Predict the structure.
Amino acid sequence: MKKNVLGIIFCAVFALAAYITCKCDFCTSINLNSLTFAIIIGMVIGNVFNKFIPDKFRDGITFSSKRILRFAIVLYGFRITFQQIFAVGLDGLFADILMLTTTYLFGYYLGTRVFKLDKDLCMLTAIGSSICGAAAVLGTDAVLKAKSHKVSLAVATVVLFGTISMFLYPFIAQLGFLSPEYFGVYIGSTVHEVAQVVAAGSAVSPVTMDTAVIVKLTRVMMLVPYLFLLGMYLAKKSGTKREKIPMPWFAILFVAVCGLNSLNIVPEFIRSFLIEFDVFLLTMAMFALGVETNFEKIKGLGWKPILLAGIMFIWLVFGGMAVNKVLYVL
C-alpha cells in the first residue's frame, strides 16, 4: 500500500471536488452525476497535463481504477433488496433477461463479425448497454483486464446514449402505449445507468420511477452470473484448469451485501452513509480511469465502436418497446 498512497490521495482529492460540485443545484438540474464528471476531469488531466503527473502517483492511480473499484461494487449492494426484486414480479424479470441476453449477444456478434472490432472492446461496449452502464463496464474490466482506453470508450458510449435516453423516454411516454407501471418496466429494462433510469422515470411519474428503479437494480444483480461465466470462458480459452477459474469475489460479495440489506438490520443512517461513500469510491475509480485513458489510442479505434453502441441503443428502444408491449398485453 505504501507505494500507492500518493496516487490514491491524488485521485481522492479530484474525486471529492467532482462529488461536491455535482451536489450543486445546477448539476442536479441537468442530471450531471459525479461519475460522469470525474471521468471527464480525469481524461483532461491524463491527456493535457499528463506530463506533470509524477511517476510515483502512477501505482496509486492504477490501484484506484482496479482495487478500489471492486470494493465500491461490493458496497453497491446496499442499494438493493431482494424484496424489491420480488415486488416487481416475473414481468420485470422476463423483460430484464430478454433485453440483457439479446442486447449482449447482438452487440458482441455485430462488433466482432460485422465491424471486426477487438473482442475486449466488443464485450465492454455490449455489457455497458446490456446490464448497468459504467458499473458493468468497470466490473467486467476487473475480470477481463482490458486496456484503459477501451474501457473509457465503452463508458463514453454509455454516457452518450444513456443521456439521450433521459430525454427520449419521457417523450415516448406521452404516446401512451403502456401504463405508468409497465412503462417503468420498459425504462428499467432498457436504459443504461441507474442515474439515467431515475432521471427518465421521474420525468414520467412517481409510479414509473419506482418500478423503473427496481427493474433496473434487478438487471444490476445479473452482473454476478455474467462475471462468473466470463471468468469460466476466459479460463477455458487460456487453458487454465477449472479449479483455477478466476472467481469474481467482489461480485459474490455484492450479492451477499444485497442479502444483508434485505434483512433490514443495518441502521438507516449507516446505510445512507455507505451509499454516499460508495458514490465517492466509484467517483475515484472513474477519475483514475480517465487519467489512464489515452485519446490517441481511442482515435485509432475509429467510428465503429460508436456506431456499434448506437445500433444497440436503437435495439434497446424499439426492441425493448416490443418486448414490454407483449408482456403488457399478456
Residues 2-329 form one domain.
